[in-house]
Amino acid sequence: MATISAPEYLLGQAKRRLTPSFNNFPGMGAVERRLLRTEFPPRKLAEPPPGSGLKPVMGDAGLPIIGHTIELLRGGPDYLLFLYNTKGPVVFGDSPMLPSVAALGPDAAQTIYSNRNKDYSQQGWVPVIGPFFHRGLMLLDFDEHMFHRRIMQEAFTRPRLAGYVEQVDKVASQVVANHWVVNDARFLLYPAMKELTLDIASMVFMGHEPGTDRELLTKVNKAFTTTTRAGNAVIRKSVPPFTWWRGLKARELLENYFEARVEERRGKDGNDLLTVLCQTEDEDGNRFSDEDIVNHMIFLMMAAHDTSTSTSTTMAYNLAAHPEWQQRCRDESDRLGDGPLDIESLEKLESLDLVMNESIRIVTPVQWAMRQTVRDTELLGYYLPKGTNVIAYPGMNHRLPEIWTDPLKFDPERFTEPRNEHKRHRYAFTPFGGGAHKCIGMVFGQLEIKTIIHRLLRRYELQLARPGYEAIWDYGGMPVPKDGMPIVLRPLNR
Ligand code: HEM
Predict the structure, then answer these.
(1) Residue 339 CB-density burial (10 A; 0-12 exposed, 13-18 middle, 19+ buried)
(2) Please, what is the Cα angle at 332 between 160 and 462, to 5 degrees?
(3) 189 lines ligand 1 (CB under 6 A)
(4) Global pTM?
């Protein structure tokens, strides 16, 4: 249910029409401008049943073969905002690559996430990541999903998280202090952060001590990167030597690696996630099979890795661009000092929570939520037949002017009393999803990211590579800064 009042909503709608992204977006070139102005022949998803009173979902197919890929890749959330403004909340994209319905705005997100009648299944993700991450938690549905989620939940209890934080901190302090290049505008934060989060995962998820098993870990980490990227392949068939095929080969390597690790860790003690998954059981004593653990570990690595990398990179960028927020966060970090971190101390870094929320509002790591209808249904009065791919776009909802004041402005105070802009609609702010599939690793991820940024702030002043530098994001998969995000780390005199 929308919690925003009618006059506020109307005012917001009017403001929306005045935002720059109504008919253009940053970095837009002549090709995209032309495409936005082009009226493609209309397409109807399906005829609603007579007498149902439902409207048909209308849209178009865009360009031959590639549909609207160019606008989506270039504009990301801004292109979707354009669609919402010009075509409404439910729009059909009859792309040959993936015909789908865009479910735009927080009301549509609410229907999909809360999934009251169990109309929407996670099978919507299958065409994109299914072959590489099958039977990962996010790809399971309904009773089977609940069964697995209840067991996995045991690996994310507070005492377990306390164990992970200790290990995250060990790796993060080490890498940030000793491996990152200082006083150099050529230092690229994004790849460095990616390596760091993989190093953290190697220890916290897989139980390898830092600096050990380098050769094996390099192979495994490379396989992760290949598997994760494979979903973006243009040729979406297993043809050697192309991306899809490489992704499947990399998945095989990961399966072999984890099968061996599970055999090794069963019945052993340990605080790493893999060993914990080997031990955990739900209240009824249900446990994961070896095969379940392999599938879950491969998915967890993917789910945890690019999301944390993207969030910590965006946060560091925003802190460099807003020195007053950097100082405010550093003041809180200074109160903690350089001692070992635990959950209680990380909870004291409240300004960092605000910066994190604002960073993932503006650049949302998981831009889409993909679903498929399991029966004929309706969405906001539009008819959706069984088997329709439906995509909600939290990344766009996070930029709606009827919810967010001056949406493109970095303004973390919007998350505090009395403004509380994120509470204007129950589904206004969903960077971690919502409903039964809400991110199970949310708290872990937040603790990991705060640990990394705390360690950075204690050692360095973060500066943009040049005054006025603005990051440009590639929205092909998870948002990635196109230039790798140069940031200057100036060691602090302490
Ligand atoms: C900033 C970091 C993160 C963000 C923004 C994020 C975002 C999300 C989102 C949006 C979903 C829901 C997808 C959907 O509705 O289909 C999700 C699900 C999930 N995430 Fe995260 N995630 C993050 C970190 C993590 C971490 C660190 C882990 C593991 C340790 C993790 C594990 C998962 C799993 C297993 C699911 C599937 C849950 C289910 O289907 O029940 N995530 N995440």
Answers:
(1) exposed
(2) 100
(3) no
(4) 0.94
